[in-house]
Write a structure and sequence with these properties.
One of its GO terms (molecular function) is metal ion binding. It holds the Pfam family Radical_SAM. This is Radical SAM additional 4Fe4S-binding SPASM domain. It comes from Raineya orbicola. Its cofactor is [4Fe-4S] cluster. Helix content is 37%, strand content 18%. It is of the alpha/beta class. The protein has two domains: 126 residues, no CATH class; 284 residues, Aldolase class I (TIM Barrel). The strands form four sheets. It has an eleven-stranded mixed β-sheet with strand order 14-13-12-9-8-7-6-15-16-17-18. Strands 2-3-4 form a three-stranded antiparallel β-sheet. Helix 5 runs parallel beside helix 6. The relative contact order is 0.12.
């Protein structure tokens, strides 16, 4: 017998947490048991079975200790293959435009004025939807996400025809249609909401706030004298009351983070049952990425404030990059730009240099330079990942990162074991939140 390679022990209040990143098992142990485990890591588990047979049996039962012949890396590879090659769903992301009604300082995209889907472009996307559904016999759900640019700029003329067509085809084939919008939320109104309710469609939304009203309006403003915070917050509430799920993305920096403590005050009038439709997720702005003791201190405090007000709040690091792998990692996914260019990743600018294919007039994707197969086989080649205890929840980040680091040993956490411990603690926090147990303050 041997200890699982995916065990981690991290300090947790007066005890220690033992967490397995492969099976997500979690137990809290006294310091003495932690010492026994560390001894077993050095001298083997046989001594542990003799000193504390009850603890040993428990660890075996929950796969913290496994048989010598178990190849955990092979099991992880099988799991990733199964998830990323799932033929029961297709995830399509559409950029109806690369124009936007805001100019956020940190946005990586090149906004293109007057860019939008043509009539022919809409028809090609409709053909692609039909072709994909016809060619995937195991398909159960079709997911369409609208991105951009701001996808609501030309909603009625460019987006509605796609939704209505997909709705019709999915109905005929008895498929579930799932819709999602990544939007700044400023253009949402009652007419927009009624469009979906009349069709019994309930899309989810990701809408960003950049701190409290003062901080947000420095980033997203209509004019020098008019911000957008109040309108966006009102629209988020309107969606929640209508039964739509809204992920409120908090884009924070060292400068604006503490201001987010004010945000729940603007949502406290949302009735209890509708609060379940709101989820606050924290993402640090990528240009503001230097280590910061201030952020490390303030982030748990701000998260606690939002949770204490009765809202779900999580941070970016708690994402499971295997079970909930990025859409770009999945074989059955594509990003269609308004001009027919095809991408897999939405976190890079939509330039000609970054495109990986194109959509034909017949509604077929031509992948250039065998890109799809290269991407699908890019994982499990990075040596630091293959030896890492958090590989089952990280796996070197997404396939885009693996492609960009091909041939180079890398770690998305810079090989910092303390950063890995933080990721472990975030996952532990998620487990406790789900079970309504007391959270750590560490």
């Amino acid at each position: 017998m041997k200890l699982s390679r995916y065990n981690s022990i991290v300090p947790y209040k007066a005890k220690y947490a033992l967490f397995n990143t492969f099976n997500k098992k979690l137990i809290f142990i006294e310091p003495l048991l932690k010492d026994l485990l560390e001894s077993a890591a050095h001298y083997g588990v046989q001594e542990l079975s003799e000193i504390h047979p009850q603890f040993y049996e428990y660890l075996c039962r929950h796969h913290f200790i496994i048989a010598d012949e178990v190849d955990e890396l092979a099991l992880l590879k099988e799991k990733v293959q199964r998830i990323d090659n799932n033929p029961t769903q297709f995830e399509l992301t559409i950029n109806p435009t690369m124009n936007c009604n805001f100019k956020c300082w940190y946005c990586y995209e090149t906004h293109i004025k007057n860019s939008r889907l043509s009539k022919e472009g809409i028809q090609k996307i409709q053909k692609f939807i039909k072709n994909t559904i016809d060619e995937m016999p195991d398909l159960q759900r079709f997911i369409i996400g609208f991105f951009g640019g701001e996808p609501l700029l030309y909603f009625e003329k460019d987006v509605v025809p796609i939704i209505e067509y997909a709705h019709q085809v999915c109905k005929e084939k008895d498929l579930e249609l799932i819709l999602h919008f990544t939007t700044n939320g400023y253009l949402i109104d009652e007419k927009f909401i009624e469009f979906f309710k009349q069709r019994d469609l309930y899309p989810s939304f990701q809408i960003t706030l950049d701190g409290n009203e003062t901080e947000h309006n420095k980033v997203r403003f209509v004019s020098a004298s008019k911000g957008s915070y109040k309108e966006i917050v009102a629209n988020i509430k309107q969606l929640a009351y209508a039964g739509f799920s809204v992920g409120v993305r908090i884009n924070y920096t060292e400068e604006n983070l503490i201001s987010v403590k004010d945000v729940p005050n603007d949502f406290n009038d949302v009735d209890g049952e509708f609060r379940e439709n709101l989820h606050f997720s924290f993402h640090r702005v990528w240009q503001d990425n230097k280590p910061s003791e201030l952020v490390d201190t303030q982030l748990p405090e701000v998260l606690g404030t939002i949770r204490n007000n009765g809202f779900l709040a999580t941070e970016q690091g708690a994402t499971d990059a295997v079970v909930n792998s990025c859409y770009a990692d999945k074989r059955y996914s594509a990003v269609l730009n308004y001009n027919g260019d095809v991408y897999k990743c939405t976190a890079r600018d939509f330039t000609k240099e970054n495109r990986v294919g194109f959509l034909t007039d017949e509604g077929k994707i031509i992948w250039e330079n065998d890109h799809l197969e290269k991407r699908m086989n890019i994982k499990f080649h990075n040596k630091p990942c293959l030896e890492c205890r958090i590989q089952p929840i990280c796996n070197g980040g997404c396939s885009q990162q693996a492609l960009e680091h091909w041939g180079i040993d890398y770690c998305v956490h810079n090989g910092d074991e303390r950063e890995k411990d933080k990721i472990i603690l975030q996952h532990i926090e998620q487990i406790l939140l789900a079970k309504n147990l007391e959270l750590a303050t560490a």
